[in-house]
Amino acid sequence: MLGIFDISASGLSAQRLRMDIISDNIANASTVRPADQVPFQRRYPIFAEKQDNSFASALKRSTAQMGQGVRVVAIAEDDVTPGELVYQPEHPYADAQGYVHMPNVNIMREMVNMISASRAYEANVTALNATKSMIAKALEIGR
């Protein structure tokens, strides 16, 4: 049962990191750079199942079939989605045609991702509290 705490804790850490990255994306949504530099690229985390290759862990997985949690594999940049071109010929970072290259951050998408990360965080807290409650009830049975 105590492994559930580790799983929930890894989920909490992963979602907190996800919210930090989303906040960074939102903060840089209007950041511009000179025309000869690449504008800020939206970032996102890549998650994978946490794996422990020890013998004890393999034995535990074969009997209980319980996961190990989640881990962050990488933080990737979205270099596929193009950024917006804004016509501002007076801007100091405008290119020769008068366009400023904006980051590829879509505020609406980031807010939806933030809500999703917040809900996942809340789900992990709920699982953690339910486990705590079950352990407390199990200890009361022994009295």
C-alpha termini separation: 20 Å
Bulk shape:
elongated
Output the helix-strand order: HEHEEEH
**Total DSSP helices:** 3
As residue ranges, the low-confidence spans are: none
Strand order of the largest sheet: 1-2
Percent helix range: 40-55%
The main β sheet shows up as: 2 strands, antiparallel
Structural class assignment: alpha+beta
Say how many strands there are.
Answer: 4
Q: Report Rg.
A: 22 Å
Mean pLDDT: 89
- Beta-strand percentage? 5-15%
What does this protein look like?
With 143 residues, this protein is an alpha+beta fold. It has a domain at 2-29 and 43-77 and 105-141. Helices cover 50% and strands 15% of the residues. The protein contains three helices and four strands. It has a two-stranded antiparallel sheet with strand order 1-2. A two-stranded antiparallel ribbon has the order 3-4.
Sum up the structure in keywords.
143 residues; alpha+beta; two-stranded antiparallel sheet; 3 helices; 50% helix
Question: Secondary-structure blueprint of this entry?
Answer:
Blueprint: H1 2-27, E1 43-49, H2 55-64, E2 70-77, E3 85-87, E4 99-101, H3 107-141
Antiparallel strand pairs: 1-2, 3-4
